[in-house]
Amino acid sequence: MGNLISMEGNQAAAEAMRQINPDAMAAYPITPQTEVVQTFAQFVADGRVDTEFVTVESEHSAMSACVAAAASGTRVMTATSANGMALMWEILYIAASTRLPIVMALVNRALSANINIHCDHSDSMGARDTGWIQLFCENGQEAYDSLIQAVRIAEHPQVRLPVMVCYDGFIISHAVECLELLKDNEVQKFIGEFKSVNSLLDISHPYTFGPLDLYDFYFEHKRQQIEAYGPAKQTVIEVGKQFGSLSGREYGLFEAYHLQDARLAIVLMGSAAGTAKEAVDRLRANGLPIGVLKLRAFRPFPSEELTQLLSRFEAVAVLDRAVSFGAAAGPLFTEISSALFASNHRPLLLNYIYGLGGRDIDIEDIQEVGKKLQKTAESGKVEQPFDYIGVRK
Amino acid sequence: MSEMIEVRWHGRGGQGAKTAAYLLAESAMQEGKYIQAFPEYGPERMGAPIMAFTRISDSPIRIHCHVKAPQVVAVLDPTLLETVDILDGVPEDGTVVVNTNESPNSLRRTLNISGRRLFTLPATQVALEIIGRPIPNTPMMGAMIKATGLLDIEAVIANTRKSFEKKFNAQVVEKNIQAIRRAYEEVKSE
After folding, report:
1. Spatial CB neighbours of A359, under 8 Å, sequence gap ≥ 6
2. HEC string of A26-90?
3. Per residue of chain B (190 residues), what is the pLDDT tens digit?
4. A179 inside domain
5. Burial class of B59 by CB neighbour count within 10 A (0 to 12, 13 to 18, 19+)
């Protein structure tokens, strides 16, 4: 562990951005902005990057500026959080539908009201249908690594989609942890030189962005966009493997922890996955055949892969750190259960909502989930399909 | 996991509890340990009670939940003793280090503390005398290292020097080091 250094999650994200050295970054520099942009602005001021750094008057403008910069043929990054991304919402669609490979660090925090600065996944989930690729991270190392991979994924010629790298607010963003950084030249070599596609400024090949597109062609364009997610999935896997060869840390669409010999599984995303691994170790020490499926790619959602992996299980609990008000279950549960419906064999499914607004989830909480799974598997029926972890009545 | 140590720092905004939590973590990392450090974020403002945490382990730390039963507690401000339950979750054999003019025996009586290993140091006075400002975090670091034996004091000093050199001039750095050393010598046990 000679190369380990200690860093906050936000610093690690900013460090990845420095090493990527994008052509342009646009950001709203005030709360709910994060230290990612503050740290990066320092890199700009110190001349450590060549980035054109544009501060704007709102997140709506920040994403608009990113769209413009990307359409003009440059490598573009930004960062935001919570209500900040909510204000980008309209332009998130435009970035994805215009197939612009923008990379964004999203610090997952709760949406108002009431005002809360702590972690949940409401912001990401609100943007799940915008067309952005969404990668969730367990710790600062994964946030750093995923930002570097995101550049390659976004710019892949068969993909050309924006990527948001999501990591948990405060729990990861403001925690110092040990992590390993790559060298600047390794990062540059890995991401490669930016290749401009259909640049707005390439006046010898004029190109139109965002024109009127009515019932004659809009639908075809949407179909193309849907179909880009096939190569996107392959690219996430491919880039994750290549990153593994470079760093020793391989990534995929998800991480399977002790699933091979397990009959019970807990599915979740983000920082609680580490806590779940510890809980699962303790449960296994008591003979429970349980594992963790940590989902990394929520978009593209690995339906076939998860169906194949989970269909043989007896009982599966899906832990959601966000809600879809009025829906029967949390957003992750809905996706998992819908994927599993295609299979002839289906596990019994439980859904838990946890951690809204930064509410803690600890090892014991997750051990309880494991015990409920065991009971469900033994009785062969789901008594309570939807429940909460750690909330008062 | 049994070898993981959890430390809770109590302070008021501006007293350097977060810096202390981070410094301890960095020093431990320099000694080959895996670490985690984070403050508790609320409505931060100068003078408000805050907490910060350090985790130190021989193996990578995967958990991301709150620290609920710290083996070590450091209290940077004596006025917190009246308003905050500094012993919350601390096991019977835990270590508590308090910035106060009182002796450990007298503090035990005043607060009616059972069990736990108690240590005290007038850290604000040490900080005022040596550094010239009432920021008790570095002397409290020295006191805590002596009380717990968590790390080698010279390693902590070396890391503090390295970390502070980035932020402060040489004089301020040396005064903080002096404060750590004096605290390490003068911390009182029962």
Report:
1. A390, A391
2. EECCCCCCCHHHHHHHHHHHCCCCCCEEEECCCHHHHHHHHHHHHHCCCCEEEEEEHHHHHHHHH
3. 458 999 999 999 989 999 999 999 999 999 999 999 999 977 667 788 999 999 999 999 999 999 999 999 999 999 999 999 999 999 999 999 999 999 999 999 999 999 999 999 999 999 999 999 999 999 999 999 999 999 999 999 999 999 999 999 999 999 999 999 999 999 999 9
4. yes
5. exposed
- Quick one: tokens of A60? 């709506």
Laid out side by side, the sheet with A290-295 consists of A254-257, A290-295, A264-268, A315-320, A348-353, A386-388
Contact B32 A174 (CB under 8 A): no
Q: What is the ipTM of this complex?
A: 0.94
Q: Are residues A240 and A313 in the same domain?
A: no
Q: What CATH number has the domain spanning B5-189?
A: 3.40.920.10
B34 → chain A, closest CA residue: A178
A206 located within any domain:
no
How does pLDDT run across A141-200, given as a tens digit for each residue?
999 999 999 999 999 999 999 999 999 999 999 999 999 999 999 999 999 999 999 999
Kindly identify which residue of chain A lies nearest to residue B60, measuring between CA atoms.
A178
Q: What is the pTM of this model?
A: 0.97
The type of residue at B117 is R
| Contact at CB, A275 and B63, closer than 8 angstroms | yes
Q: Judging by DSSP bridges, how do beta strands A290-295 and A163-168 pair with one another?
A: unpaired
Q: Is A81 on the interface with B (CB under 8 A)?
A: no
| CA A250, chain centre distance (Å) | 16
Best residue of A120, A174, A176 to probe chain B, by most B CBs closer than 10 Å: A176
Yes or no: say if A5 and B26 are a contact pair by the CB < 8 Å rule. no
**Residue A205 located in a structural domain:** no
In a domain, A78, yes or no: yes
